[in-house]
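Researcher: Quick test of sequence recovery. Tokens follow.
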């Protein structure tokens, strides 16, 4: 892989880590184990992800996340716990994909990888907070299943076609930012509506003298 492909794969994996960290680690390890993701010489240390023990732990984490993510409010608790874990995992995965002989690129990869994972995690967590407000019981499982399918499909696409990974990374980043902005506006609108419905004195008009 060339530099652009490595950066694209690193960016895509980091962003997807914000959705499904354990699935991302597992998929990357499996791809390396079977040789689906060819690595340049200086990235051979990443083969640790193909270690059976690492893949086993990642598989357990994937299953736990799959189940927790389908239950309303449990998913939000899970997201809160992983508010540090996912960005850190995304940063470390991006760091591992950059040439260790270039400290400057390593610092850049760590910062951007962690930032990308944090942005996608924030988009996911905010989406779930909005979905959990819904009284019907099926939207949570539907959204979670959609995330599972999207993450799996995008990981497969990145692994199979590293050349398009940078495009995928950019689209994921733009989508995550737009989702965060839209959902935060929606949450503010919902909170404002609740305050008005409850007669919050803070939002009440000033008395006429």
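Model:
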């Amino acid at each position: 892989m060339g530099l652009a492909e490595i950066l694209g794969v690193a960016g895509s994996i980091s962003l997807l880590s914000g959705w499904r960290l354990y699935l991302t680690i597992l998929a990357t390890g499996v791809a390396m184990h079977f040789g689906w993701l060819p690595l340049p010489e200086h990235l051979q240390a990443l083969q640790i992800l193909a270690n059976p023990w690492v893949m086993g732990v990642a598989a357990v984490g994937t299953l736990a996340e799959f189940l927790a993510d389908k239950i309303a409010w449990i998913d939000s608790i899970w997201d809160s716990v992983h508010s540090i874990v996912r960005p850190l995992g995304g940063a470390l995965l991006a760091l591992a994909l950059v040439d260790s002989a270039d400290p400057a690129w390593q610092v850049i990869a760590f910062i951007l990888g962690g930032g990308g994972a944090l942005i996608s995690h924030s988009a996911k967590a905010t989406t779930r907070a909005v979905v959990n407000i819904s009284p019907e019981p099926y939207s949570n499982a539907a959204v979670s299943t959609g995330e599972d399918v999207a993450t799996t499909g995008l990981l497969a696409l990145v692994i199979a076609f590293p050349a398009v990974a940078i495009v995928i990374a950019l689209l994921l980043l733009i989508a995550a930012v737009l989702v965060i902005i839209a959902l935060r506006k929606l949450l503010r609108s919902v909170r404002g509506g609740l305050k008005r419905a409850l007669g919050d004195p803070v939002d009440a008009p000033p008395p006429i003298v």
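The mean pLDDT is 82.
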